[in-house]
Each structure stands twice: as C-alpha cells, then as structure tokens.
Amino acid sequence: MPSKAKTGKKLVIVESPAKSKTIAKYLGEGFIVEASIGHIRDLPQPSELPAELKKTSVGKFAVDIDHDFKPYYVVSPDKKKKVTELKAALKDADELYLATDGDREGEAIAWHLLEVLKPKVPVYRMTFGEITKEAIQRAMGNLRDVDQDLVDAQETRRVLDRLYGYEISPVLWRKVARGLSAGRVQSVVTRMVVDRERERMAFKAASYWDLTGQFGAESGSFKAKLAAVDGAKVATGRDFNDNGELTSRNVAHLNEELATSLAAGLQNADFRVRSVDTKPYTRRPAAPFTTSTLQQEAGRKLRFSSKSTMQIAQRLYENGYITYMRTDSSALSDEAVTAARRQASELYGPEYVPQSPRVYSNKAANAQEAHEAIRPAGDSFRTPAQVAKQLSGDEFRLYELIWKRTVASQMGDAKGSTATIRLGAVSTDGRDAEFSASGTVITFPGFLAAYEEGKDETRGDDDSDEARRLPNVAKDDSLTATDIQAVGHETSPPPRYTEASLTAELEKKGIGRPSTYASTISTIQDRGYVRKQGSALVPSWIAFSVIRLLEQHFSDYVDYEFTADMEGDLDKIANGQEAGASWLRHFYFGEDSDPGLLSIVNNLGEIDAREINSIPITDEITLRVGKFGPYLESSAAVVDPKTGEIVESARANVPEDLAPDELTAAKAIELMETAAPEERVLGTDPHTGHTVVAKNGRYGAYVTEIIPEMTDEELAKQPVEYYKNGKPKPPKKPVKAKPRTGSLFKSMTVESVTLDEALQLMSLPRALGEDAEGNLITVQNGRFGPYLKKGTDSRSIGSEEEIFTITLEQALEIYSQPKQRGARAAVPPLAEFGPDPVSEKNIVVKEGRFGPYITDGITNITVPRATSLEELTREQAVELLAEKRAKGPVKRTATRKAPAKKKATAKK
C-alpha cells in the first residue's frame, strides 16, 4: 500500500481557542493550530455505563477496582464533534504537536488526545511557560514525549477523588442532608473554616488597660504608650490566652481603676528621657508571584476573589501578557532577571539595582512543578502604560500588580533606621511609669519605590513601628507631658479566614495544590458550606454537621497532616518514585493494620443522625440542623396555658445572616423568647373536615390544611393487586394527598389571620369566568404581586385585597387595554452600594424576571441563591461584578436556517 503523500502541514493542539490564536502568530508556515477546549474525555457517571459493565468491578465508580483501578473513560458528549474535527485535521498533517500546558493537567490532556486520535504520524510534546515568539522558538528546540509519570499522577488524583466522593458523600446524604458532597481537599478546607469558627465560639475576652500620652521636647512632640509599671512590663493582648487567662508572668495587669489612678497621678509629673536606642533598618523585597501568593495579594490589594484572579490571569497568559499562572515556583529565568534589572535601572536609577541578581527558592510545603514564577511575558517586559489600551480594567490592574512585584523583586533593600525612646516619671502615689515610642525612618526606599506587599489581619496589639520621625532627644532630657489618658482594651478572637489568608494557610500546611485553591474555595461556597460576610469566610451550620460526622467516622480523611502526606505521595507518583495503581490499592483496600477506605465505610456502625445535627447552646437550648435550615429547640417542658397539658418543645428559627459565633447563650434565649408561634390552629374546614393551621415557614408565613393519615382499617379496605401467578402483591403505601396552601398577604400575620381568610387563601387561584373566546381568566398572587392570567397573558392588578373583590367585568376591561411594557412607574432599587471601583457607575440591586440582580448599568450578575439581600455587602457586590467581567461577554452562536429544499420536479 503506497504511503501517504506529504502535505507539509503540521498540526498543533492546545487547550483553548485564545491560546491557539496567540500561538499561531509565532509559528512558521505550514502550522495549523487547533484547540481541544479542555479535556476531551473523562470518567462517566456509573449510571451512564453500558449495561454489561454495571454489574462488574467497573460498575460502582466507572473505575475497575479489581484490575489496577483502571479508569473507564468516555469522550464527553459535547466533545464528540471536536474530536471529529481534530481527526479530520490530523488526516492532512505530517506531524502532530501536543502543546497543552506543562503541568499534570496539561500532560493528561495531551495523553488523552494521543489515546483518542491514535495518530500515525510523528508526535511531539511541546511545552512553554509563556506565549511569546522567543518562548515558542525555545520550545520547538526542546521537544519531548508525553511524560507518563505526570499522566499517572493526574489519573491517580482523578480516581482518588472519585473513590473519596462516591464512598463518603452517600453517608452525608443519609445522615445530614441530600445533595451534600465530600471531597479530598474540599472537606479539609471546610474543616479549617469550621475550626476557626469553633475557636471564635469558645473564645473568652479579657480586658486590660494602659496609658497613652503626648510628650514634647524642644525639637518636637511625639506620642508614647505605657510600657512598664515599677519595672514590670504592662500586659497587652498577647499576654492572654483564648480563655481570657493571663499567661505571662511578671507583668503588670492594669484594670480601669489602676490605670485611671495612674493617669491622674502623672498629670504634673516630671518626665525625662531614660534611653534612646537607634538600630539600622533593612527590608528585603518579596519573591515574584506563585499561584498562591498571586491569589493572596490580588485579594488584599484588588479585592479579587481567588476564582476571579485565576480567570483574569488565564486570559493574560493565553494572550501573551504573562507567564503560566499555575506554578509553585518563585524562580525567574535568566532572561527575566535581566529584563527586571534593566527595567528597574531605567525607571528608578542604577542605584536601585543590587550588584548581584536576587535568587529565590520555594518556601511552601510540597512545592512542585518546574515552572517559572508568574511574571510579565517576554525577554523584555512591557510596562503597564504600554499595555493599558489593550487590556480591560481588571486585566490591567492584575498585570500592573504582577509587573510591579516582578521588577521590585530584583531591586535593592529598603534601608533606614528605627529609633526607640524610653521615658518615664514617678506618679504622686510613688508608682514608676515608663513609656515607649518607636519610629522608623526610611533613608533609601529601594524596592518600596515600586511595590509594597500587603498584609492580612492579625491578632493582638499593633506594635509595628510607624513610618515616622521622632524628635532628636538625648538621655535625661526633660519632656512636657499632655493628654495622658487611660485606655481600655479587650482581647480579640482569632480573625476569620479571608480567601487570601485561607490560601496562605493551605500552602503553609501543604494541603492540596495552589492551582486548585481557587476552585476549592469557590466550591465550598457553592455547596453552602461557607458564605462570605464582607471578605471573611463564615461556615454554615450544615458545615458543622458535615465536619462533625467526618471527624467522628472518617477522622483521617479530614486530618491536616494525613491530607498533606497524601499530597507528598502523589508527588512521588509524579516523580516516578511510586506507581499509582499500588498506591490506590493501599488507599482503598488497606494493608495489614492500616484499614482502607472500603473497610471504614463497611464498618461504620450506627450513626446517630440527631446527635450529629445537634449543637448544645445552653443547658436547655440546642441548635438543630434540620431539613429546612437551622433552628433552636428547648428541652424545657412547654405547658399549654388553656389545657395545662405538656406540648411539643418550643422552637425558634435561626436568622440566616447570624454567624455561628454570634449565637451566644444570651442570643439563643432572646430568639426563643421573641419567636413567633411556629404553628397556630385556626379551626376546621367545614367542607373537608381538615384542620387548618397558620405556620411560620422558612420563606414566610403561610396557611395549610392537615390531611390525616389513613387508619389501619382504611388501609385494609384498599383493593388488592395480584401477580401473574395469582399471588397477592404487598399492599402499596398510599400516595399522600398534597395539602392546599396559601401564603399570607403582607397585611396578615400568623397571630392575626382568621379561618375564613385562610380558606380564601387556600382557594387561590380564583376563577373569574371566561372571555368571549372561551378563555378562562383567573386571579392569583405571585412573587411580584397579584395578577390576572388568561392563557399565557398575565396582567398585574393593584393590591392583594383586590384578589377577592375584582370581578370578571373589571378583568375584561383590563384585558381590553393594550399591554403596557415598561410604562409602569420606576421601581426603586432593592439596595444601593455606591460607585463601582472599575466602571465608576453606581451599583444597585434590582428585581428582575429571574430574581434580584446586581448591576452597575453595564454589567449584570444574578444575586447567588445562597446570599440573601439582607446579608449582601458592597464588597460582595463589587466582587460578583468583577467575576462577571472577568468571564467576558457571553458568546451567542448565530443559528442559520437550513436552505429550503427544492421540490423535485416530476419526470414527464
């Protein structure tokens, strides 16, 4: 058979269309660049497996657990057309270049392409850390084969996550709530947020006092703080533990009385300088960005979420502005070091650049991947001003941040001096009081001329040296004292995690991979385990239940060290030091005294769901996590004042915006005392005999009827069904009749609604009659108020009360008028948050057809279901708009009508 004729074409496959367009500019003639658009195949749901596999060892996970955990992959339905296109392009090519990203994920995509396309031409693996002409040329000179160790590591992770999720999640469904999920990293991250909230709940504040004063010398005045009394250091917040106990010895713990009397006794005291200490100050620049530090700093400085940061960085990388954005490395290439030093010298002067280049090494636990740090692309950097017109607002801000950090990393140290003045006097009651003041003066800014790293919130007293110049004083100089005041303080609980501080802690502990932090933090919010309160991450009560169950029955799988060690093992697989199949076998089946996941799941024993979902708040009040949300329940007997009988325990709903650490014993008692009656019996429906009650539900007050269960006698009278062999079938459980319900009008309450009103509400929608064409017209209440309905034509009416008074004639009159669109009076916004930092337009929340949405007049984003309008903050609104902008406009595919087929002409 003759060999295929050479075409001169070379097919290059990357992941994304944006990346393909950028690369195409730098490749020579004959190269065709196509995008796979991510993974082309994955593990299917077990329910989607062929029937012959469902009862085999593949059936439970779509992974063959009896044969080295071999995955059963299928081409995703939405990728079948793409695979066909790639195969067609490959037929005309002489060579295939797999140019997906150089990390594990990219290596796996390249391997899947190789497996599915089955090329018969030479195949080359090409990787690059940036999309520039120089980088592409270097990559063409360093071609290699697909790295099977990296593929094995990624495949092991994928199978591991399937085993973990599919074995543990069903336990959560049975014991906590349907729809919950467990994940190898997701559950551990959720535990970290829950643990921090537990610390805040257990925290007991301690109070302490000190003094401040203004002191003057001939050369100027300065503010100082009390440091010691009678030689003993004055207690500060750092001297107390979280139980409010003083842990430091030989310190002076001042209360209000002692501090106030000391301040009074020092009003006319003779203050003198006791010592002046000056030390040199040196500060080094921060290392260039890794994935983790970029997410942290973008969160602090730009208020971007981790997810938004990575979306924007992805676009900057794919369009050739920055290097690859998923990396653990803080190292720079020789070309990048030269570019940064040259630019720093040009912009700030040669004195701002040290003689030798700075070299940075990784500090994170389990640092991996041989990528370079995140920096501007190219062997020479474009300044922010040079790219400003080519980037969107958020893209420019992130590029500028990366550029500043990179250039600053190769600049000189900031230098100066820190002076500390100790001064003191003896009060009228004989106590010796010593004050202290510190100030740092920067004499050479060095890298600070370009960039200064942000900081997360910390606990304790802020004793950092202020950037201030203290007056020139000497020992024994006399000082005048004014405004000496006693100041009270309270210790603060551990600050809640923000996305930035949580990312930093994850990296420190070696949990997960920095490249997945953004998606993990986004997932725990989407699942309802965590919500944002400003920038702080607050766990939900359901997260407490989930973590409690996992801690009690799957302790290793939410243990921080165990999870970090697992990452280390997966890194060994990536380095070829261990085989993925044998590691998975040990993880799932266990070995010797080490039980595997399967053994733990099969020997769980009895799990008390009520105990898992209960958290004591006081001796008598317990928080329960129920089907419709958290509520409080009192164990104290409640006596009906009319009958004197003991009735069901009192309950109270917990406000959704109340953080767990805010549910104190006092708050719980308040909620119980002010709770509206959960249920009020209104009477009996004279037509059905059913009891009618008014209730306070999660989504508002409503009325409903109680349909009694069938008695044993009624069940026995049900007709019997038989099998074909004549044997009777077991009696079926009767389908429960759906009770009629009706939401209360705004003017009604559970306490005031009457039986007659309830029966009217439950009768809705109300039929008014038919129009001339026989179309039925009804009136009902909806989310946006009362309205008429005729087929698909709806018309609003005035008030809720009109629902029961409007006549057919009035309805026909309304329908005789043209339907008004947009002619109603402007509805005021539901909330306003001031100008957006990017568009500078006013941010408002409006009610839309599909629910409330946030808009600045340019970008719209729906308010997440998990976020109530009451708890929506300006920071969240700004962040949601930023994330929507980061995704870019929705691309709508134009649909073309197929040309009409010509009618065949009959043969004559």
- The unreliable regions are 364-369, 892-908
Number of strands: 38
Query: How far apart, in Å, are the first and last alpha carbons?
Result: 48 Å
Measured by DSSP, the beta-strand proportion falls in 15-25%
Structural class: alpha+beta
The coarse overall form would be: globular
Strand order of the largest sheet: 9-10-15-14-13-16
The largest pleated sheet is described as:
6 strands, antiparallel, barrel
**Number of helices, where a helix is a run of at least 4 consecutive DSSP H or I residues:** 25
Oligomer class: single chain
Query: Kindly state the mean pLDDT as a whole number?
Result: 87
Round the Cα radius of gyration to an integer and report it. Answer: 35 Å
Helix content: 25-40%
Q: What does this protein structure show overall?
A:
The chain is an alpha+beta fold. The protein contains 25 helices and 38 strands.
Structure summary:
The chain has 908 residues and is α+β, with helices and mostly antiparallel strands. It has 25 helices and 38 strands.
State the main characteristics:
alpha+beta, single chain, globular, 25 helices, disordered C terminus
